[in-house]
């Protein structure tokens, strides 16, 4: 049995089971017959006898893992979103640094598994119009069997929801959670029956969100849920009506795709990988204009959303982000 050393620079290995993009790839690799060894330490790659393949998330610290793996003659595969290559999100300095990291990662890589068209376009721009042959597009997956909602839209709870990592304040800004809270405050004045649930790991970012909730007197209608289990996430999404994804950039937007599969109507920025994750479904808003977002949301709350509209979104996720598609892709490149 071949062994895959699966690396990301996470603070705790618990995130490998919490974050669905990690968890799904781990499950796929195991189903393909590989023994998966989880790592958050670059030093693990010095133990060359312990692994055959390096499977690395994100094009930054993984560079050093790739260098060690190649030094010992191992196969190296990169994946994950590349936010800091995007002009709409990153500063010029950030783009230059990320560009250098990506080019170095590409040197040591056998295949870069790119997860969105936006990232592919940014890489092509980085290489002056010619994308490296090592870059292959394959979307992250959604467990549609578990996530798909099969009921009536009108029976769903009148609730908005978003899910984000809130350990740092900068991620709260990037995900647009502060905007979502302010938008909801305006909507709640017209539709007081609606609530807003925000899930995800908590820290200084969630402290800031709570302060905003306090300032806007929304404690009775906006709830910070903290980290929730996969089962709780599915239940939350399947019983909610609307999902906020007001991100300045998304490498892919897997949470938005999961929300779409669970029968939510997306209200999103359309930036980065959200073009793939949401496709033609949901409502794209100008995140630099909160009044525009408020008008859109008020209009949605007034409408009677049809089951066909909801079901079309669910079918889109089934067709585009299936578990089997990524499994077939990984099986193909790993067996070259």
Description:
This protein has 336 residues and is α/β, with parallel strands linked by helices. It has two domains: 3-141 and 321-334, Glycogen Phosphorylase B (Rossmann fold); 144-320, Rossmann fold, CATH 3.40.50. 45% of the residues lie in helices and 15% in strands. It is built from 15 helices and twelve strands. The protein has helices at residues 15-18, 20-31, 62-71, 92-108, 117-126, 144-147, 169-175, 177-190, 204-215, 230-239, 254-261, 274-278, 290-302, 307-320, 323-334, and strands at residues 3-7, 35-39, 53-57, 75-79, 111-114, 135-137, 159-163, 195-199, 222-226, 242-245, 265-268, 283-284. The strands form two sheets. A six-stranded parallel beta sheet has the order 2-1-3-4-5-6, with helices on both faces. Strands 9-8-7-10-11-12 form a six-stranded parallel beta sheet, sandwiched between helices. Helix 7 crosses helix 9 (204-215). The radius of gyration is 20 Å and the shape is globular. The two termini are 16 Å apart.
List keywords for this structure.
alpha/beta; 6-stranded parallel β-sheet; single chain; 336 residues; 45% helix; 12 strands; Rossmann fold
What is the tally of beta strands?
Answer: 12
Q: Using only CA atoms, what is the Rg?
A: 20 Å
What CATH first level of the largest domain would be assigned?
Answer: Alpha Beta
Largest sheet, in brief, is: 6 strands, parallel
Q: What is the number of helices?
A: 15
